[in-house]
Amino acid sequence: MARLIENSGGIPTVAPSMREVPLESNTEALEFARVLLEGEFHVVIFLTGVGTRTLARAVETAYPREKFAEALRRVAVVARGPKPIAALKELGVPVSVAVPEPNTWREILEVLDAKRDSIPLQGRRVAVQEYGVSNPELLAGLAGRGATVTRVPVYQWALPEDTAPLRSAIYGIARGEFDAVLFTTSIQVVHLFKIAAEMKLDAEVRRALARTAIGSIGPTTSEEIKKYGLSPDLEPSHPKMGYLVKELSERSGEILQRKRAQQQ
Length: 264
Description:
Rossmann fold; 14% strand; elongated
């Protein structure tokens, strides 16, 4: 990210705001594998590449990797974008449904609706590999279409062990030192405001961001930003960091001029 910003003429400040922490217990993953190997699931939805690989490693502690892959090859496999597709390819598992950009829960449900004849959900058991947090809209949407849904959490998001860079960035935001702030996942927004609240700077951060160009990687992250009373100024044409940096750098001048004029 820093190099991308530099290549676009910006001066980056990178503040890590999260880390992946494997769950202490693999109970859900192993129960999912047992039921899958018994042939009781009909659809499995993979949401992230990291989660797919983490799940495979967890399952390997109890079952051979090839048996797990074999069982997946017997069901409809849905992959939310290129990263889980790549992880499934490593396992030798073909993808039945590739979810199109911007790869949100809405696109998952839309593509499954379009394929309801070949991949029906009514009366079927569906497993969802989760990534740090549950997606209640996706789970409710699947259940509303008649599916029996099983959550398969494999890791959770935590704050970084060293929060000093994040705290420093929050001070900088509150003082109006940045022209643009970029978010590449919704949990970054949650953690930013969690630490800002601990520092008693959440109101100052909101006021400062109202005068700052806010870039969001996609709709899910934008929804989280809006929960804090802010509006993202740009989502890239493709939900990738390179597009986000390039397109925000091209439009940041006009965005800043407009937002700061409104604040006068």
